[in-house]
Amino acid sequence: MQNILMMHIHEGKSRREIARLTGIHRETVGKYINQYEKRREQLLAAGNTNFDVQALIDALTTAPKYKVGQRPKRKLTPEINEKIKQHLTENEEKRNKGMRKQQKKPMDIFEALEAEALTLATVPFFVPFVRTKTK
Predict the structure, then answer these.
(1) How far is CA 53 from CA 11, 44, 115, in A?
(2) 3-state secondary structure of 84
(3) pLDDT tens track for 46-89
(4) Distance CA 128, CA 28 (A)
(5) Rounded distance, CA 109 to CA 124, Å?
(6) In sequence order, what are the residues at sequence separation of 6 or more whose Cβ sits closer than 8 angstroms to the Cβ of residue 43?
(7) What would the 3-class secondary structure string for 71-109 be?
(8) Would you give the DSSP letter of residue 70?
(9) CA–CA separation, 21 vs 83, rounded Å?
(10) Rounded CA gap, 35 and 33, in Å?
(11) CA dihedral of residues 108, 109, 115, 117 (deg, nearest 10)
(12) Which among 74, 85, 78 is positioned nearest to 131, based on CA atoms?
C-alpha cells in the first residue's frame, strides 16, 4: 500500500498505471488511494494544514490489531444442556416415526432456546458434544 501511495503522490502516476506496474487490481489501488485522500481531507478539515504526508501513509499502512485473547470462555450451563438433550430426544422420536426431515438442526435448537430466553451464542457449537455424551 505504501508503494502505491508513493507512486500516486510523488510520481503522479495514474491508478491504471500503478495497477499495471504492481500487479494489484485497479479497484484495489483505487481503494487505497481513496482511503488516503479521505483521511487527508479529515485532517485538513480539522485545521491541520501542516501534517506529515509520510506519517499519514504510515498510519494507513499499519496492520490492524485485534483483541483475540480477551474473549470470554464459552459456558454451557446445566439448564441449557438439559434443554438441548430434550430437543435431541425429540429428534430421536421423530427419526423413529419416520419423520427424519422434520428433525431440528443445531441452528433450530438455538432459535428455540433463544425464544425461551435461554440465549447462548454457541449452542450450535455445543450440540454435537451433547449428542455424543448421550450415546
Answers:
(1) 14, 12, 53
(2) helix
(3) 776 666 766 776 777 666 666 777 766 667 778 888 888 899 99
(4) 41
(5) 8
(6) 51, 56
(7) CCCCCCCHHHHHHHHHHHHHHHHHHHCCCHHHCCCHHHH
(8) T
(9) 60
(10) 5
(11) -150
(12) 85
Measured distance CA(46)–CA(131) in Å, rounded: 58
For 74, the grid coordinates are: 464459552
Distance separating alpha carbons of residues 84 and 123, to the nearest angstrom: 8
Report the alpha-carbon angle 111-114-117, nearest 5: 160
CB within 8 A of 9, min separation 6: which ones? Answer: 36, 53
Here the cell at position 13 is: 502516476
pLDDT value at 117 more than 90: no
- Is the sign of the CA dihedral 20, 23, 28, 34 positive or negative? negative
Return the C-alpha cell found at 116: 425461551
Report pTM: 0.42
Which amino acid is located at 103 in the chain? Answer: Q
Nine-digit cell string for 85:
438433550
How confident is the model over 10-54, as pLDDT tens digits?
889 999 999 999 999 999 999 888 888 888 787 777 776 666 766
